[in-house]
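Note to self: keep these together.
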Amino acid sequence: MLAGPPVCPSCIICLPALHRCSSLCLSYSFPGGPVPVRLPPYTPQHGQLQCPPTTMAARDTSSLLVGLLVLFHTWGAWAGVEVNMEDRVEVYRGETAQITCMFTSFDGVSGMPIQWFYTTRSGNKQRIYYQNSTKNGVDGGTPFTDRISVNGTGASGEIVLTINAVELEDELEFICSIKTGEGRTQLKVFETPGPPSIEGVQTGISVNEYSKIGTCEVKNGFPKPNIAWYRNNTPLRAVQNVLKMVPSITTESSGLFSVKSELSMTVRKEDKDDLFYCEVTYFVPGGLRMTETNQINITVYYPSTAVSVWVESPKGKIKEGDSIELHCNGNGNMPSSILSFSYGEGKTLEGNMLVLDNVTRLNSGVYHCSSMDTDTFEEVSGNTTVFINYLDPAVVMPKDSAVVTMGKEFKATCNALSSLQTHTVWFKDEVEVSVGHSLILKDATFDTAGTYTCVVTVPEIEGMETSGTLDVNVQGPPQIINPDFTEVKKSLQEMVDLSCNVRGFPAPSVIWSTSDGKILKTTSQTETKEGVESVVSIKVTADITAFCNASNDFGNDAVTFNITAIKAEIPILPKKIKKEGNGVIIAVIIICILLLAILGSVLYFLYKKGKICGRSGKQDLTKEKTSKDNIVVEMKSDSTEEAVLLGVNGDKQSPRTQ
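Structure:
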């Protein structure tokens, strides 16, 4: 597209006052200056722009100029050149930019002089490249001398200017001049900024105070980035004396821009939960990009308008003996506010927590908590009522113990004063026997007697209970509990223990006797819950019949035990020798051996004297003849020299038959 004032496809003709024509108008050079020519409609590449409305005089003038143009064209005295270029070329800093210049001519495009210029900051044109039919080259002494090159000779009607390592200072207007025609392109340079940052105020802000909220900053962008503030996803707009956003721009030494924006506003209580953040928009080649910061919120200080007081623990109903913890808190958060408890008779405690251990019903009452601002001395308070539930010790009637006549009915009660509904259960020997405050025992027997426990609980509060006990005695004649045995067999001289367990109230007296009327001495007698237990020990000397006689004011009872005496049999079994008797046994054996030795000596002496078996003298043993039937065996003792001779057939033989 040709450089010049903007036009749109609806334009019919461009007036000479425009000096340069758009793509809809073609410029021809005549001695009198450029003459615009009416062309068919043409749609620009970068949008449609509006031309000024055409007046009647302009249309007449245009018709005249068209006629002159056709006349001059017919003559062919001058050849015109049409140059087309993009309005702008966009590129990132440091990259390569290519600017294309396309042109046409009625005389052909070959050999035409071509020059490239740029417009300086002061508005002057500075040539950077030239080319004609004989030579071409880059002009020296310019910022582009070492960074540009031109592709093409113009023979194809297109030539491209290439700029390497584009810098921020290269954002200029570049001009392609071909003979009498020229085109212009604006080079736009971009640099993506760094990620934005946000910083909120670190201190709290009092309500209704106009204060700084935070600062957003984005660095090193080109062109200048833009910062917008948001609160809860809603863009903020400046309101006089209420909200203000103050931007500041810093040009770095590199030529890049750093932008900072500070948000200040009058703080309300509702702002305590608001989230603030910044949105940064910046241009890039071909479009617009956006990025956001993280979100921040601010601490808003506001005074309390109400105070809440509550029991933190225990949850639910409170009973005597519990430890309770009360908390209080105002609905404000001013650092200058102080919380304090007041309770009982003038008791106070500073702080937002009150702990009471092992409470009683006397701790019931109203507990107050107040919040006072030490700066303004304004005070607000709240309270809560605490009730301590109680359960008094159980009262059993009759108290401690009671006596009931056998066969009669008995009634007892158990009550405990409580602030809540109670539940009572009676137990005997850990077994539930009745439910309710009253215990009714009908047709009492000895089995009825014993210890009864009533347990009173409060169902609404776990662990809240009390208890009481009652010992019930049933009066009546004694009853002897059947013993484990009444028939006993024991050896003579052995001891046997007989036991007699008697129930009854008053406690029965027990007397042991035998069938011959002898009174036995009791070994032991122990009182039990039901009566007494008596034990007697008897030595068995013969068959015995023993009696256990029990009696009290209401009657008596007795039981008979039969003891049978068993004669002991002497077992024919070798007695085991105890280790400790070994010494005595050895001594006895030695004595026996000595006695045998003495006896042997006496017998030997008598033998020698011929006093035994009619012997009168010695006999020579060597003269004896032996025969098969007269073989003898000489048996000698180790302790005596006496010999006993036996025949082969077992007959005794005298020594002289040897």
